[in-house]
Amino acid sequence: MSIIIGILEEGLIYAILALGVYITYKILDFPDLSVDGTFPLGAAVTAMLILKDVPPVLTLLLAFLTGALAGCVTGFIHVKLKVRDLLSGIIVMTALYSVNLRIAGKANLPIFSKETIFDNAFLEQAAPEAVKPYLAVFVLLAITVLCKILLDLYLNTRSGYLLRAVGDNDVLVTSLAKDKGMVKLAGLAIANGFVALAGCVYCQQKGFFEISTGTGAIVIGLANVIIGTKIFQQLHLVFREKDGSGRIKRQRGMRATTAVILGSLVYRSCVALAISLGMAASDLKLVTSVLFLIILVMSSRKGKKVNGHA
């Protein structure tokens, strides 16, 4: 049971990160490497604020806004300074390492003695005794589902449709008299806001900020996105409603955001399985890289088979 709880906790935290990576990778087609700096940025801001007795719930919003600001910097470098997307992310990622150290003051900052969204007086009094062992999972599930709902609502707005159009056909956005650069900048801000929010939740769940927590965050996020979109969305999980004559009245498949969250849980399960089979915890980055490589190879081969049949 402890292993399952650990998988759910880690999977839901990185699912929030994956929602941000989904925006940049799948919607914008933007290789945003600044994620490796934005994730610990959210953790650094959270640790600093909690030590100053800022309410833990408020740190969620502040971390999101801080991450959004970092995303704006990446977008500004790319859109206004005309630097390539990949290099823009690398520049911001490198700069954020020093910024995170400046914010936290040191490479490791514990917050064990402070209240967090997982450990506070309100939850201690309100939660039944039977629920307390699973309290962190319920809190994480609530935050993740809320993020998914808000992202789905945004993607169905006018601004959300423009964001999708920029990734698919930026000429269309220009023909609508919209600045595609500003749309892309807004998408990067939202994406990095989610990543920083994941870092915030991670810091409060673990009880400390560590400068190296962002290493490999982009790989984990991409793995979650690819697992979700390539496996769950291609399982043809389609819900059909029929009218009185038996004809299909409405057909609806799994949302990409839902698939990304499920992909994160599957990914963490694979990592937990690898460790349970004898891999050391220090080999986690190696396990992550190998899993990511396997996922990429399998998805590319599947795509070739589909194209071949077509």
Topology:
Elements: H1 2-27, H2 35-51, H3 56-79, H4 85-104, E1 108-110, H5 121-126, H6 135-155, H7 158-168, H8 170-175, H9 180-206, E2 208-210, H10 217-232, E3 238-242, E4 248-253, H11 256-276, H12 284-309
Antiparallel strand pairs: 1-2, 3-4
Oligomer: single chain
What would the average pLDDT be, to the nearest integer? 86
Rg, alpha carbons: 20 Å
Sheet having the most strands: 2 strands, antiparallel
Given as residue ranges, the uncertain stretches (5+ residues, pLDDT < 50) are: 306-310
Tally of helical runs: 12
Tags for this model:
two-stranded antiparallel sheet, 12 helices, two-stranded antiparallel ribbon, 5% strand, mainly alpha, 310 residues
Structure description:
This protein has 310 residues and is mainly alpha-helical. The chain is built from twelve helices and four strands. The chain has a two-stranded antiparallel sheet. It has a two-stranded antiparallel ribbon with strand order 3-4. Strand 3 and strand 4 (248-253) form a beta hairpin. Helix 11 crosses helix 12. The chain is globular. Mean pLDDT is 86; it is low at 306-310.
Quick overview:
This protein is 71% helix and 5% strand.
